[in-house]
Specification:
The protein is an alpha/beta fold. It has helices at 6-26, 43-59, 74-86, 105-111, 123-130, 139-151, 170-177, 198-202, 254-257, 271-293; strands at 2-3, 33-39, 62-68, 92-95, 159-163, 187-191, 207-210, 227-231, 235-238, 246-249, 261-264. The termini are far apart.
Length: 294
């Protein structure tokens, strides 16, 4: 069994990006600039955005954090997005989700300039991805592809089962794993909360990518020997024995499933760190596109 170590690979990618930034600076050119909008004081969101800002510092990017009140109106948020759209100094930006109830998430995602949409959530970028065109791939699926690539996980001709159909992970992952090329060329089954007898499907899978958000949902009796398992789930489960009062748990019963797996991601330290690394990679790509246009 081989651990797909997202922490290590993400650090490798950050080192590679830092080298690119050094070359950009040596030429006297503009360094990549990533901005993030966060609405409200959600603890998990603040932690996540904070780690993105620190990652920018590490690789030499410029970063801007726009922190807004959770009572902000939709119009005010859309005005802020338009300011970032028209700011030539900013190469890419993200709007941290979830948003407060008074704001239409879809309207916000549509307002982001697709050329600066380094999260890859805009319908134009999602459509380009589905058509195998050059685009920003959503950071979490992009990170999973990179893990498969760097560990040489064979995907061609394999049966991939994706659990979960969110627009952020499940749906894009099902498209990407079925595309021509590597990683890809697999036969994909997309399953979700309404799928009947899901264990009959997962037992046939060569590769399982789960993004369900149900702690330890995938058990050893649901997988076959030699399976590759990617666990995108991350849930805080109360645990009084821990200093913080909780433990971080994925969708996979790691203890039992790892005994049957050929490759498996841990939680934490698997897909999570890769998401931030690929966001940086998308920002570097955005900066290259903008410099080519100018």
């Amino acid at each position: 069994m081989i651990i797909l170590d997202g922490k290590k690979i993400s650090n490798d990618i950050k080192d590679e990006i830092a080298e690119e930034v050094k070359k950009i600076k040596a030429k006297g050119e503009k360094v990549p600039h990533l901005a993030a909008i966060i609405v409200g004081n959600d603890g998990a969101s603040l932690t996540y955005v904070g780690s993105k800002v620190r990652a920018c510092e590490r690789v030499g990017f410029e970063s801007t954090l726009v922190q807004l009140s959770n009572t902000i109106s939709e119009v005010e948020l859309l005005d802020t997005i338009e300011e970032l759209n028209s700011d030539d100094n900013i190469d890419g930006f993200i709007v941290q989700l979830p948003l407060p109830d008074q704001i239409d998430e879809q309207k916000v995602l549509l307002a982001v300039n697709p050329d600066k949409d380094v999260d890859g959530f805009h319908p134009m970028n999602f459509g380009r991805m589905a058509l195998d065109m050059s685009t920003f791939i959503p950071a979490t699926p992009f990170g999973i592809l990179e893990l498969f690539d760097r560990y040489g996980v064979e995907t061609s001709g394999k049966h991939t089962v994706v659990i979960g159909r969110s627009h952020i992970v499940g749906r894009p992952m099902s498209i990407l794993m079925g595309r021509k090329g590597f990683p890809g060329n697999s036969t994909v089954t997309l399953t979700h909360s309404r799928t009947k007898n899901i264990e009959d499907i997962t037992r046939q899978a060569d590769i399982i990518i789960t993004a369900l958000g149900i702690p330890e949902f995938l058990k050893a009796d649901m997988v076959k020997e030699g399976v590759t398992v990617v666990d995108v789930g991350i849930t805080r489960v109360p645990d009084v024995s821990k200093k913080r009062g909780y433990k971080i748990t994925g969708d996979v019963d790691f203890e039992s499933v790892s005994k049957k797996a050929s490759y498996i991601t841990p939680v934490p330290g698997g897909v999570g760190p890769m998401t931030i690394a690929m966001l940086l990679k998308n920002t570097l790509l955005a900066r290259e596109r903008h410099s080519n246009k100018s």
